[in-house]
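[job 0417] fold request received: GTPase HflX
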Amino acid sequence: MLNCYYLGKHKQAILVHICFQKNHNFKDDLDEFESLVCSAGVSILNIVTGSRNTPNAKYFVGEGKANEIAEKVKNNAASIVIFNHSLSPAQERNLELLFECSVIDRTGLILSIFAQRARTNEGKLQVELAQLSHQSTRLVRGWKHLERQKGGIGLLSGPGETQLETDRRLLRKRINTILLRIKKLENRREQGRLTRASIPTVLLVGYTNAGKSTLFNYLTKASVETADKLFTTLDTKIKNINIKTVGNIVLADTVGFIRDLPHHLVASFQATLKEIRQATLLLHVVDASDNCINIKISSVEKVLAEINANLISKLLVMNKIDKLNNFTPRIDRNEFNNPVSVWLSAQSGHGISLLLKALEECLVGDITSYHLCLPPRAGRLLSYFYQLNAIEKYWIETDGSVRLIIRLPKNKWFRLCKQEVELLEYIV
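[job 0417] inference complete; emitting structure tokens
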């Protein structure tokens, strides 16, 4: 099932990109679309563009444009037509009947890339879950040629379960199986998070192909795959690094975001989303040489808001300054002299020292020590702090109470206080 959206190099495609109303970024959107198709390993035969006020209910494009695309498909012997938009199942079915070849939309294209790039078991399960969720509304296309199966006895026989209903039931069963397996992996990941809860977690987030993996490799001396392609990284990578005055921190590289990312696709990557929501600090990596820099920053901020991670502290990392003319690394600060952005090149390493300095400033103020006095009945909390590896010092009083000094990032402390309301009573 994992390869149901695999395109591959043997596919030759006609691309369709329609401008709705006034789109000032038409060319940039088209360039990104071509990059997505190339990342999927598909050969581009022809590109059809056009403009409309609203999508057509039957073909998404107008009937004249649809016939034009059908003619290009025939003349170029194309095997697939790819739309840079979201299509309804009915529109995909109608277009396939007209074109006499496969048709996929933007979501299907992204899923194809994900299917090719998933490496870990967890990543493959998350991709398959996203594929099945997308495929569930499109099953009818695969069985439109079949008659209903019959069921019953003798003359009282009536219509039985159709092949379509059978497939839907099997698909739901497979989705439930995947969800159970992902849940087990999430529990294992949660145990790992508990063991490092007292250590600040810094996550690299940003638009796809902004240079997150290159920066991750430079900071951790790792060898995560990097390429000038969209969605090179799909599986979350985690490493420890040491920062002066802060100590060890956890650095994680995550899958890149993209505009118009479907909600069900975002929801399928719960492991990545949980890592983001649990982070101490987000490093929002941006391609400083990109013409659509503000739009892409807004796209990332929108996704972060959708997953309830928009309130986590962020530091902008303006990457790829080596592509700018005569631009030197620097730190931008706000009115309180706190760092808000760092300009650097992860490829050459220029400005990395400034990033480490900014990280140090952001994290030193974020990690705080708390002095608690736990009564004998609060043994469960004491055990929990041991699990978090957060205890710096403790001693037992004559009345059996335990005094301890713990060290935690502020956001994790506040999260713990919400879970354990009585904890506030024990602060000395």
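[job 0417] notes: The longest helix spans residues 163-195. Residues 119-143+161-194 form one domain.
[job 0417] exit 0
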